[in-house]
């Protein structure tokens, strides 16, 4: 089974957004992080928005973020919703093969596809972003590692006034 580039980009976008939940992201920054086509990614993000996985906001301060918690985004469901055709061979798609009726290959491949999707159904986006993988993924994508402070807080940089006696 080979997933299309479209599904690959969809999964990568969800991973990026899951690693970067604290702020909105742009299509341009995701495309840059992965070295992929911004125009193709725009189509992918549009569908992710239509199926309720990504929330998009237009205008200044707008961008993308996950529409649901990572634990609620099932990898198998994403594959089913983004793959245009899961047929492994032509006879699945249109029944035009002369040996379709007695052929056992169709049944075997159907079982293989079901097993493939069943495995993907056991994983959520949260699993892909597990604590042991998230820091490495974030660094490779140019994001701050989870738990890192990206800018000092006001409290940390403000001088402390001496205590006054009562």
TrEMBL record:
SUPFAM superfamilies linked to this entry: Winged helix' DNA-binding domain (SSF46785)
Keyword set includes DNA-binding: yes
Record-linked InterPro entries: Tscrpt_reg_Rrf2 (IPR000944), WH-like_DNA-bd_sf (IPR036388), WH_DNA-bd_sf (IPR036390)
Cellular component terms (Gene Ontology): cytosol
UniProt GO MF annotations: DNA binding; DNA-binding transcription factor activity
Keyword DNA-binding attributed: yes
Keywords: DNA-binding
Pfam families in alphabetical order: Rrf2 (PF02082)
Domain of life: Bacteria
NCBIfam families: rrf2_super
PANTHER family with a match to the protein in the record: HTH-TYPE TRANSCRIPTIONAL REPRESSOR NSRR, WINGED HELIX-TURN-HELIX TRANSCRIPTIONAL REGULATOR, RRF2 FAMILY
The protein's name: HTH-type transcriptional repressor NsrR
Organism: Methylobacterium bullatum
């Amino acid at each position: 089974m080979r997933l299309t580039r479209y599904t690959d980009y969809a999964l990568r976008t969800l991973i990026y957004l899951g690693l970067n939940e604290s702020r909105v992201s742009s299509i341009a920054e995701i495309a840059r992080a992965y070295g992929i086509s911004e125009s193709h990614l725009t189509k992918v993000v549009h569908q992710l928005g239509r199926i309720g996985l990504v929330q998009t906001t237009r205008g200044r301060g707008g961008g993308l973020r996950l529409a649901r918690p990572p634990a609620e985004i099932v990898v198998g469901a994403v594959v089913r919703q983004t793959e245009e055709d899961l047929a492994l061979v032509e006879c699945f798609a249109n029944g035009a093969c002369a040996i379709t009726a007695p052929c056992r290959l169709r049944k075997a491949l159907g079982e293989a596809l079901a097993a493939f999707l069943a495995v993907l159904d056991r994983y959520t986006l949260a699993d892909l972003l597990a604590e042991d993988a998230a820091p490495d993924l974030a660094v490779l994508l140019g994001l701050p590692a989870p738990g890192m402070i990206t800018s000092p807080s006001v409290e940390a940089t403000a001088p402390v006034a001496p205590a006054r006696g009562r």
